[in-house]
Amino acid sequence: MTYCLSCDARYYLSSTFTCEPLGNLFTKCELTLPTGGGCAICKENYYKQKADCISCDESCGTCVDSTSCLTCQNEYFRLSGSKSKLCVSYDNLTKCITTTPIGCLKCEDGHYLYDYICKSCSDNCISCDNYQNCNNCIANDYVLVDLQCVNYKNVEFCLSANNSKCTECEGFHKPSDAGDYCVKETNYGLVVGVPLSVTFVMIVFIVAIIMIIISMIQKRKQKKKEQNICNFKMSRSNIEMVKLSTNLVSNKTTLKFDLDDNDPLKVDIETRDLICIGNVSKSNLKVQFSVMEGCDYYEIRSVPPLVTLKPGYACEFEIFIKPLCTCVTKESVAITSLNIATGVIENAKIEMEIETEQTTKLNYREITEDEKLGEGSFGIVYKGSYRGVCVAIKKMKQLDNNESGLVEFEKEVAMLDKFRCDYIIHFYGAVFIPSKVCMVTEFAAFGSL
């Protein structure tokens, strides 16, 4: 008798060690019972129910029973959180970009992932965490306000929107930092600029009025001055003119200051002379008198100090001279003319003869030092000459520009001027120019200093 140790796939090994046919158990059983009456282990896609193997649901790869999948078939996934334990077809994963056996991992715009399923965001939202919390709105016209998409027209003062933010606001408003509403903007240009502009305009207006008033006052003063200025047309005058330069003529060539009398000029008192200056050019000329710089023994001025002469016209000038010391001299006074049309300046000269009365105020230019005679604590004595006379010259020490010292010096000179006697040395006077201060007396050839 023969005993089987193993059987073909369509047969099973019986307890008598013979191979018996499986029938339909072949399609379901991985391992049959020794009696052939059922399955000990089921194949995939089957679950064991007593001795039989029952086919799983079509969605299951493996299962526990007809309603519970352990794994899913291809193109199926487990629906997390669902009461049903069966797998669901990928066809149910709408709006999903990336599908897996556990569900969706990435959704299309406008949807969010919830338990591996794509659900719609709120209206006009393209990116959200859930239905209540939107992250980005559609490109234009909507603003993200409190995690919801709102049309920009419903946002107060908002005029346009882009990228979920209000981009332009009405009037004196601007978008907030988050861009979800419009805030009132302080326009510092207006707040500061307008008051400053108004203030500036007022200041300019006031300054303009002041300038106009000043100009009017000056014009009135100028008219008053011009009333005192003697301008005349030379062709209608019988005054004989002498040519001074190309453009200027004058009625005299020398100023002698002898209108009132022929007496010597007074020291420290103004004496006047008159002179007419005419314009023989074809342009307007500005004419004024000027003296050499550094003149310290007389002062001179003209009235008017400056005048504009038309072609063919002349002006009468008053020349005032104030000698500051006793002097006899001849000087030249410059007459400067400016051609207004061309800007060319021309200088002419006119002589001036000065002879003053004899006073104790001497001109240092007429004093000559010859030799040093002696020196004391208050000064140095020199032998010299004054207008051809031998004199003693006492130069003061430590006086310089000290004002109080000059006052004391003047008092001393005034006192010496009172002592006039044939039996004492003659006092000629003193020089009061600060840098040249000295006293001049008769030189006593046989007397003491």
Automatic annotation (TrEMBL):
Keywords: ATP-binding, Kinase, Membrane, Nucleotide-binding, Transferase, Transmembrane, Transmembrane helix
Residues of the Protein kinase domain: 367-449
Transmembrane segments: 188-217
InterPro entries according to UniProt: Growth_fac_rcpt_cys_sf, Kinase-like_dom_sf, Prot_kinase_dom, Protein_kinase_ATP_BS, Ser-Thr/Tyr_kinase_cat_dom, TKL_Ser/Thr_kinase
One function term, GO molecular function aspect: protein kinase activity
Entries under Pfam families matching the protein: PK_Tyr_Ser-Thr
Residues annotated to bind ATP: 395
Protein name per its UniProtKB record: Protein serine/threonine kinase, putative
